[in-house]
Design goal:
Length: 205
């Protein structure tokens, strides 16, 4: 019987050729996937430096600033709500955003109302605190302007930033961890010491 199929038709190849072609294609695709998988896995895992807690000498940058410009004391309005920031290593350019526990609340208040320890941790009235509520890990940021308190939006714990972010009411088991700050010669906000206090939620026993 005469075969009228065009010479270039893949169906015109003998069954053995088609089988080998399919196997080769599948093997090639599998090899390609295997070759890409480690690269994808490496890309999804944040480097250790990005997960590390804020280090002395880190600068602070706004969470919503895609250019990672350092925050200055003058960027923080007095008495207004907190700004969310990430620490950034200026030497390596590493943004420490690999862990949500590194997110920092930055606000500026009149230092006349600070207790002694809070005054020592402040830079020209600018304070830094963990942005994660120790109760269940909700992200903080709500500001009660009249009372000058930080409120958890989930379970309504209230923290006094003028007194080391101690708990005034609500279910939170402890105060917010403080991040001591200083200002360099250009007025940039710089981490002076690591977090003071435990960061993250209360451990279940």
């Amino acid at each position: 019987m005469r075969d009228d199929r065009p010479a270039g038709d893949p169906c015109s190849r003998p069954p053995m050729d088609r089988s080998i072609g399919r196997r080769a294609a599948l093997a090639g695709a599998a090899g390609l996937c295997l070759g890409l998988t480690p690269r994808l896995a490496r890309a999804e895992v944040a480097p250790e430096a990005a997960r590390a807690r804020p280090q002395p000498g880190d600068v602070l940058v706004r969470v919503d600033d895609g250019k990672n410009g350092p925050l200055h004391v003058g960027d923080i309005p007095i008495g207004e709500g907190p700004i969310l920031a990430w620490p950034l290593d200026p030497a390596s350019g590493t943004l420490r955003s690999g862990s949500r526990l590194n997110k920092v609340l930055v606000l500026r208040l009149d230092p006349e109302g600070f207790d002694t320890q809070t005054h020592e941790n402040a830079a020209d009235g600018v304070l830094g605190y963990s942005a994660i509520c120790p109760h269940t890990g909700c992200e903080l940021g709500k500001w009660l302007a009249e009372a000058q308190l930080i409120e958890c939006p989930c379970h309504f714990s209230h923290y006094d930033p003028k007194a080391g972010a101690k708990v005034l009411s609500g279910p939170s088991p402890r105060r917010l961890a403080a991040l001591p700050l200083t200002a360099d010669g250009d007025g940039r906000l710089v981490v002076a010491k690591p977090f003071v206090g435990r960061v993250g939620i209360q451990q279940q026993t």
